[in-house]
Design goal:
Layout lengths: L6 E6 L5 E6 L2 E7 L10 E6 L3 E11 L2 E11 L9 E10 L2 E9 L12 E13 L10 E3 L4 E18 L5 E4 L1
Antiparallel strand pairs: 1-4, 2-3, 2-5, 5-6, 7-8, 8-11, 9-10, 9-11, 11-12
Length: 175
């Protein structure tokens, strides 16, 4: 979240000698590691994200060894109101293991990234929640982070997952 045209700090932590950062395929330059630089010899760039999906990648080198990493992120510039709706979607599937994501939106359909409401998941039908493990994706009840929450389901046939954020209507999604 930020304003359009605002520069944001990107940190890369590596024990490599140098790293190059790419934003949406464009080089943001190469930084050289300084072990005296706090914190943890992190390399820092100031970049301007585009509204919507952005792709960050880095290539780091130490001697003849090259490593890389990448991530997609969504940069939101709109402000939002109070959450009024939860939406469920299938985020990932690996055979019968399905990850479902819940997101909270305001009346204009803008993601409420500051929402930290507690949400409760339930499942009916031929399957079971992977829950009560105390992790961010394996708990029946948890606190949203950045307006989002996930849970994994073992789906053995037709089933329906429901999500109820505190003080809001329940949403359901058929798997």
């Amino acid at each position: 979240m930020g304003n359009a045209g605002e520069k944001r700090s990107v940190h890369v932590y590596s024990n490599c000698d140098h790293a190059e950062l790419f934003l949406n395929g464009n080089s943001m330059g190469t930084k050289h590691r300084d072990s005296q630089n706090f914190p943890a010899a992190g390399l820092r760039w100031e970049v301007e994200f585009q509204h919507g999906t952005n792709h960050l990648s880095t290539i780091a080198t130490k001697g003849e060894t090259e490593v890389s990493d990448e991530i997609d992120l969504i940069y939101q510039t709109e402000s939002w109101g109070d959450p009024v709706q939860v939406r469920l979607s299938e985020k990932a599937r690996n055979q019968n293991l399905v990850t479902v994501e819940a997101k909270l939106f305001d009346v204009k359909g803008i993601l409420c990234v500051d929402s930290a409401k507690t949400i409760r998941f339930q499942l009916t039908g031929a399957g079971s929640l992977i829950d009560n493990l105390g992790t961010t994706r394996a708990s029946r009840e948890l606190q949203l982070s950045n307006g989002r929450a996930e849970i994994s389901v073992i789906c053995k046939g037709a089933c329906t997952i429901e999500a109820t954020p505190e003080g809001m209507p329940t949403a359901s999604f058929n798997l």
